[in-house]
Design goal:
heterodimer; A: 563 residues; alpha/beta; TIM Barrel; 2 domains; 4-stranded parallel beta sheet; 22 helices; 49% helix; B: 145 residues; Rossmann fold; 5-stranded parallel beta sheet
């Protein structure tokens, strides 16, 4: 049997002797080729890990089992062997009719969940008649009121299929969907899914895809949203804590995990302050992360984050229900790591990133299309992204074994080291008064900016290799680039004309009444702003009308930009 | 004016709807570190605001970062710049721009499109060169009888 045995279990001197012989041979052979290796988060990486790198007496020590706290090896007893991860590809382009057609096609081909990305104008709180028409529908579907959402979801059973929507505060897309469901006779308690990106802190810090509601207002709207969903839409996940934006903006994997956990603590403490019991809202908290090219670092990031959260939820937030301790996360492969040069190489990058996320124990996965580095993903690109997941799951058999890297000397030592890094960064945030204050003061933005600059300098100096960019360049690269698909301008013109006609046919008195109700909810500390948003959606208000009124009443905010 | 030794004035900004600013922040910092005078704005500027700032700050180069299709309105910016008699100012775009749309931008007068993978050194060297071009264009205009 070639079972690796911890040196100390061998006859005393024999083990030490073997170890010494390896070290001597290593040094003698590697000579000048020896190099210092440090991962992106700053952890020094040794050439070999052994049982000595684990603090305990054996590799199993302290690891526990899947489904048992602190969940290092996974949050469920069965993990991917029982139920594979959810394949959740983001979709959104053009008009509601375009979106509906693509969605029905995906559902027919086996997709089990709906996702919806709105047009950037929607994120930013504008209706289609107040932005440059060239931009409409180029990055997501143009949804401005309940009729549009109803059209998006035609022939989709929203009472049975889980819907995830990229729907930042004040969650108008969810409001539109709930009203559409209500009209179809579907009870809100049957509606399930996630408000992706409901984490206002991450928008404020990193990607700025929000409608400039000031921080205090955004904080209030999120709390109202969580409280409202708990009461009226109990199967909906109102809180998605986002690390993806920050890592894409330049945070190291350890920073991204630390800031996300600190955001989760901030939001949970805010909920508690509102009088909610942790075990009522924490089971509906989900997380959303980026998976970069640094393979083992990503695996260790997820394993470390999972067990830190289990402890935080129990010890710091006082949750008693195990469902509150489970770190449920969606992950997306990293767009910024994709290259415009030799774009087909991106298929290999996405596969490696996806594997890191799978070995990290994710619950749901979006794989990027290889053409994202130079275009909005094409249909062909999106299809390969889906196939990549299918191959990893069914050809490579990655779902057969739970936490297959668990017990690896390296992965366990790195998980410990990443945990230490993450906790140190969280301590810095705590010392700054928590995540809200650390964002308000610009501390988090400055740390992310410095890390982004460090990474760029390493790439520019070729210390970090990017194949096809700073090494292994080729000249024939343009050949494999696909053409971009833009929404049909004629369809978009008709969508605009329909919108104008719909708007002028509305009762102005009804609109005024709904706007007044929004103001009253914003002004009353006991009012629920999200409840008022749902009522406004039912009364036929548009996204811009709702966002504009709340921005007026709750305050206009500018992101703090630090160069 | 000595065109070999001057301090280029560059405006680094984003127009349109997208808020992702990792690229614009890094480029702004690189230009600053390379000795340029950098005017930097948060994302989401309107075309009118960019023209006004370019005029008031007397810039040589405007750098537009576009990661989510905002480059589609850059031709409108070019027209507005010309109308404001800022035709000498060089406009560059950096970010995600598909091949055939790069041709449209160049046709509209964009001096250069920087794609992902460009080094900071490369970008700052060329920004300096375009600033020099802009100053020469102004000088030529002033010397005209």
């Amino acid at each position: 049997m070639n079972k690796p045995v911890a040196p100390r279990l061998l006859g005393d001197s024999a083990a030490a002797d073997a170890r010494q012989r390896w070290e001597d041979e290593y040094r003698a052979t590697i000579g000048d080729a020896e190099r210092e290796a440090v991962n992106v988060s700053g952890v020094p990486i040794k050439p070999l890990y052994t049982a000595d790198d684990r603090a305990g007496s054996g590799v199993d020590d302290g690891l526990g089992y899947p489904g048992q706290p602190d969940y290092t090896r996974g949050i469920y007893a069965t993990m991917h062997r029982g139920r594979t991860w959810t394949q959740r590809q983001l979709v959104g382009l053009g008009t509601p009719a375009d979106y509906n057609e693509r969605l029905l096609g995906l559902l027919e081909r086996g997709a089990t969940a709906v996702s919806l990305i709105p047009c950037n104008s929607v994120y930013r709180g504008y209706d289609m008649d107040s932005v440059e028409p060239e931009l409409l529908g180029t990055c997501g579907v143009v949804v401005n009121h309940v009729e549009h959402m109803d059209r998006c979801l035609r022939d989709v059973d929203v009472g049975r299929i889980s819907c995830a929507m990229n729907d930042p505060s004040p969650f108008t897309l969810l409001a539109f969907m709930l009203v559409a469901a209500e009209r179809r006779g579907i009870a809100w308690k049957d509606v399930s899914g996630t408000s992706n990106q409901s984490d206002y802190l991450s928008h404020y810090v990193a990607n700025h895809m929000f409608y400039r509601l000031a921080l205090p207002g955004a904080r209030r709207v999120l709390m109202d949203h969580i409280a409202w969903c708990r009461e009226f839409a109990p199967r909906w996940n109102p809180m998605s804590v986002v690390g993806q934006h920050m890592q894409q903006a330049g945070a190291t994997p350890a920073e991204a995990m630390a800031f996300t956990l600190s955001s989760a603590v901030q939001n949970a403490e805010d909920c508690r302050e509102r009088g909610m019991d942790p075990d009522e809202f924490l089971p509906r908290f989900t997380f959303f992360f980026d998976i970069s090219m640094s393979f083992f670092e990503e695996v260790a990031k997820f394993r470390a984050g999972r067990r830190i959260w289990a402890r935080l939820a129990r010890e710091r937030l006082g949750a008693k229900d195990p469902r509150s301790w489970r770190f449920k996360f969606h992950a997306q492969t990293s767009g910024v790591d994709l290259t415009r040069q030799q774009p087909l190489n991106n298929i290999a990058r996405v596969a490696a990133q996806a594997m890191a996320g799978i070995f990290g124990g994710l619950q749901s996965l979006h794989t990027d299309a290889y053409d994202e580095a130079y275009a909005t993903p094409s249909e062909a690109g999106a299809r390969i992204a889906v196939a990549t997941q299918n191959i990893l799951r069914e050809e490579a058999h990655l779902t057969d074994v739970i936490d297959p890297l668990g017990g690896s000397f390296y992965v366990e030592a790195l998980t410990d080291a990443m945990e230490e890094k993450i906790l140190a960064i969280m301590k810095t945030v705590d010392e700054a008064g928590g995540m809200y204050k650390a964002v308000e003061s610009g501390l988090v933005q400055r740390m992310i900016g410095a890390s982004a600059m460090r990474f760029q300098n390493r790439v520019d100096a070729s210390e970090q290799v990017v194949v096809g960019v700073n090494k292994y360049r080729a000249d024939d690269e343009a050949v494999s680039r696909t053409a971009v698909e833009r929404p049909d301008p004629e369809q978009m013109r008709r969508h605009l004309a329909d919108f104008a006609a719909w708007k002028s046919a509305r009762s102005t008195a009804g609109v005024e009444r709904a706007l007044d109700a929004l103001t009253r909810s914003a002004e009353s500390p006991r009012g629920n702003v999200f409840g008022a948003v749902v009522d406004a959606a039912r009364a036929g208000l548009t996204n811009e009308e709702i966002c504009g009124r709340l921005r007026r009443d709750l305050g206009f905010g500018q992101p703090l930009v630090v160069v | 004016m000595n065109l070999d030794n001057f301090r280029p004035r560059v405006l680094v900004t984003k127009i349109g709807l997208d808020g992702h600013d990792r690229g614009s922040r890094i480029v702004a910092a690189a230009c600053r570190d390379a000795g340029m005078e950098v005017i930097y704005t948060p994302p989401w500027q309107s075309i009118a605001a960019v023209v006004k700032l370019a005029l008031e700050e007397d810039v040589d180069v405007v750098g537009i970062s576009s990661l989510a299709t905002d480059h589609l309105i850059v031709p409108k910016l070019m027209t507005a710049m010309r109308e404001a008699r800022l035709g000498h100012v060089r406009v560059v775009v950096g970010g995600i721009v598909p091949d055939h749309e790069e041709a449209l931008l160049k046709h509209a007068g964009v001096r250069e499109v920087f794609h992902p993978g460009s080094t900071m050194d490369d970008i700052t060297t060329r920004m300096r060169e375009y600033a020099r071009e802009a100053r020469r264009a102004v000088a030529a205009e002033e010397n005209r009888p």
